[in-house]
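User: Okay, second chain of the day. Same drill as before: sequence in, structure tokens out.
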Amino acid sequence: MAKKPNRTARDVLYELKWREGKDLRRAEIWYADRTRAEEYKIIKGKEITELGRGYFLSGDSMLPYYKILRIVYDDEVLFERQESERKTAK
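Assistant: Same drill. Structure tokens below.
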């Protein structure tokens, strides 16, 4: 699955969850986290319990899609936020 222009992080996660032959559990979601030295956290797709309209649930946390920096699936980057957009995600 190659990167397509103008796809949002939510679009990519929904595709991995619902498209036949894809598996959200195999994805890695790089998520902006100011509390960490590296400023991001990697969430495994298998940790996602729900995909909502403006957020997703992981454990007991409700996380907004706009803080997703990158989505990797089987070593392929499917989504990567542009540098200019990253400043608003922090």
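Residues 9-18 form the longest helix (10 residues).

User: Thanks, on to the next one.
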